[in-house]
Amino acid sequence: SLTPEVMESYWLPFTANRKFKRDPRLFSGAEGMYYTTTDGRRILDGMAGLWCVNAGHGQRKIIEAIKAQAEQMDYVSSFSMSHPIAFEFAHAIAQVTPGDLNHVFFANSGSEAVDTALKMARAYHRARGEPGRTRLIGRAKGYHGMGWGGLSVAGMSRHRRDFGPLLPEVSHLNHTHFPDKNAFSRGRPAWGAHLADELQQMMAIHDPSTIAAVIIEPVVGSGGVLPPPVGYLERLREICDRHGILLIFDEVITGFGRLGTAFGAELLGVLPDIVTCAKGMTNAAVPMGGVIVNQKVWDGFTAGPEGTIELFHGYTYSGHPLACAAGLATLEVHRDLDLYARTRRAAQRWEDTAHALKGDRHVIDIRNIGLLGAIELEPRAGEPGERGSEVNEMCFQEGILIRNTGDTLVLSPPLIIEDAEIDRIFDTIRNALKKVA
Length: 437
Ligand code: PMP
What we know:
Elements: H1 4-8, H2 17-20, E1 27-31, E2 34-37, E3 42-45, H3 48-51, H4 60-72, H5 84-96, E4 101-107, H6 110-127, E5 135-139, H7 148-153, H8 157-160, E6 170-173, H9 197-202, E7 211-216, H10 232-243, E8 246-250, H11 264-268, E9 274-277, E10 289-294, H12 295-302, H13 321-336, H14 339-355, E11 363-369, E12 372-377, H15 386-397, E13 400-401, E14 403-405, E15 408-411, H16 419-435
Parallel strand pairs: 3-13, 5-6, 5-7, 7-8, 8-9
Antiparallel strand pairs: 1-2, 2-3, 4-10, 9-10, 11-12, 12-15, 14-15
The structure holds 4'-deoxy-4'-aminopyridoxal-5'-phosphate.
């Protein structure tokens, strides 16, 4: 049983022990749109776990695939060997990516995928005879995981605070997608494409021939759900092309259906050179991450006289059989459910229902794209983040799981959400907003 001593032994992420002892929410079951707590309460999952259980919890086909694979072969290394499902899964991913993003490398998390992508970007330029192209550029509000690379390019100073010094030769774009407070834009803001020009302005400080890559989340997720302004990504793409800089989209959240297309790049209409993914890739049933590169990047590594170059990078669990089996089954489930079209339909009601909170107490902005949503609350004077945390807790007491980053409530439900569940989530938030101080 969970005695205080047992509880002490587990240091939860993002906490030190003192905070942990406060009262963690303990879950023991999950099915469809719902979690069950250890004390038997049913909780409507407004976060798809942590932006990851896109097809809903407990999908039978995925569970069966994992079981069958575990029975057949638990593990094989990916160093000079592999197994057929790894190739089949990579191919299946390539089938649903836009453009020529057709070459997949497997990692085990979003953080590993990001670090892999950053390493690949540098290696790509080196392979093409430009070893001086090493600078990596991130952006304010960006979240790219907890590895040294991802942390270095991240735009969350709070996350970096305790761990410096981080990677050298990293710069950050200072703008965010916020067009303005109180914008209440539905979907993508019309204003703000020019913000991308900050990248061009950076060239006055850093010679463009020293810049390897720019990494952004096409829709900022953990930083508070910020959809890109119309025309913004096109402008960023154009500047990168002009200077031979690789563009990396971190699609750890937006990949695998969240925006109503397999990848966000498809909906947003701009193709990056490299995509990182994780989370929804296996419906979160087994940890996995991936890096998908386009033909240009692939050729950069492989077009030399030696053919495929040796790149000393890989993980013990790259292409783990259980993860590949889960991933392949996940894509089948997406097809069976016609999940992306279904998501696009649900996203319409999602937008309308979310924006109906405009004018409610404390609400200063509402943002949405696909099945992502954010409701930004006015911080309580002298207590930033408290109001957001209190609303989060009130929702949980009413059986709804949401998240808050400070005073911004963020939402990312399983894509199988029904209309009544959309209504329930926003009704519960509305009631909490009436009560919270
Ligand atoms: N990139 C993005 C955009 C993410 O949202 C996350 C996780 N929230 C990561 C990277 C890191 O993924 P992981 O936690 O699986 O390492």
